[in-house]
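User: I've been trying to design a sequence by hand for this structure and keep getting stuck. Would you show me what you'd pick, starting by listing the structure so we're on the same page?

Assistant: Good idea, let's start from the same input. This is the structure you sent:
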């Protein structure tokens, strides 16, 4: 492997004042104990793009057990496939990985990645060139083995190594590629794009939990609309969420509009995952209720809505994903309450609004607000329910929903 390109601070202009002080501390402590250590990956990329990193990850020559010995009780070791150290500072976590090695040319799914190596070998195990940069805070240099710095400047997404091989080794990389495309709107390099199209069926070999976590992260990224549009246009939803894929072929307007409004809200205030996931399910639920009940002139009460909300949630995520029960309870409650706010059979007007004993009710209002941003005629209803909710003292102890019924 050729020597790395090294960029001085006069060249890269990385804002060192934006680096987390705890990350500095971890790097320095590892070095004092005789180990190499660098800031690596997404944090270096984001700093070079003048964005605020969400996490600060570190790569080191110290093995997990050695890291544990240095940081003692502040360190916990996690993962089997990919052993990592989490250094805790209160609620903040600095993730530390050991330099990896192994056969980066082996054409099979990576099931274990705990063969340790050097910085040069470690970078070959990473996914994209823009994520393969090291930063040395001691001399303030960016170290680049894979031309990631140039690709950042040119706004290009490129795999490290042969694209098809890298996607076969870890198909989740294809989802991550679309994630970075959605976030940065970079151009996907030709070989990488061709491999994405050719290997998309490999995605079903991935861990559902890992992909679901990527979806969740993008829902809170302010770029969820872009991301799900890309998943749809490159046909990944055919494999991951086939029912949603079929629905979007019929009518995708409301789903993408809800995601767009959620992206705007997230840029100002955080929203729970369950509220954001409801953006994917609510339009489908509306269609199911219309086809099965409204068009047949069948009276729809909330009990029916609950049942169809359960079925709709399961339909959207199965067969590939298994949504955690607590999260599913929240989603079903949010969806059901939408038809409390705007009943299907609105034969009478209620003078007094009754607030249900529901721990998810405020989240339901948060989702209803997204609907109001699309249909301003709903705003008066929203404010009536919000005022009623805020004026009512909600009991701390609320009956638990039986999760096993889901």
């Amino acid at each position: 492997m050729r020597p790395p390109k090294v960029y001085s601070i006069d060249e890269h202009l990385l804002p060192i004042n934006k680096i987390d002080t705890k990350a500095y501390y971890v790097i320095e402590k590892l070095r004092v104990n005789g180990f190499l250590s660098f800031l690596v990956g997404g944090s270096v990329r984001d700093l070079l793009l003048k964005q605020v990193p969400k996490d600060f990850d570190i790569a080191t020559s110290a093995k997990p057990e050695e890291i544990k010995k240095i940081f003692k009780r502040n360190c916990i070791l996690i993962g089997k496939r990919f052993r990592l150290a989490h250094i805790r500072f209160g609620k903040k976590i600095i993730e530390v990985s050991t330099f990896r090695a192994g056969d980066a040319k082996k054409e099979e799914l990576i099931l274990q990645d705990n063969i340790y190596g050097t910085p040069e070998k470690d970078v070959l195990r990473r996914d994209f060139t823009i994520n393969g940069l090291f930063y040395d805070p001691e001399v303030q240099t960016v170290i680049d083995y894979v031309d990631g710095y140039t690709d950042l400047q040119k706004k290009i997404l490129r795999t490290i190594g042969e694209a098809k091989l890298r996607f076969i080794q870890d198909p989740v990389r294809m989802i991550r590629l679309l994630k970075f495309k959605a976030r940065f709107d970079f151009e996907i390099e030709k070989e990488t794009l061709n491999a994405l199209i050719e290997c998309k069926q490999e995605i079903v070999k991935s861990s559902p939990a890992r992909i679901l976590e990527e979806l969740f992260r993008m829902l809170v990224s302010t770029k969820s609309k872009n991301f799900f549009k890309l998943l749809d246009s490159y046909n990944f939803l055919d494999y991951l969420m086939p029912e949603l894929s079929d629905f979007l072929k019929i009518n995708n307007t409301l789903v993408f509009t809800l995601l767009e409004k959620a992206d705007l809200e997230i840029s100002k205030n955080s929203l729970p995952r369950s509220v954001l996931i409801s953006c994917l399910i609510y339009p489908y639920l509306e269609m199911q209720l219309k086809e099965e009940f409204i068009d047949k002139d069948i009276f729809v009460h909330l009990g029916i809505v609950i049942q169809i909300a359960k079925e709709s949630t399961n339909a959207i995520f199965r067969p590939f994903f298994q949504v955690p029960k607590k999260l599913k309870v929240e989603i079903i409650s949010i969806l059901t309450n939408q038809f409390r706010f705007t009943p299907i059979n609105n034969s009478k007007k209620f003078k007094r609004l009754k607030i249900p004993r529901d721990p998810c009710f405020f989240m339901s209002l948060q989702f209803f607000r997204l609907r109001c941003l699309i249909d301003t005629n709903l705003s008066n209803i929203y404010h009536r329910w919000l005022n009623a909710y805020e004026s009512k003292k909600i009991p701390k102890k609320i009956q638990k929903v039986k999760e096993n019924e889901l």
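That's my pick for every position. To get oriented when you compare it with your attempt: DSSP finds 19 helices and ten strands in the chain. The two ends are 54 Å apart (CA to CA).
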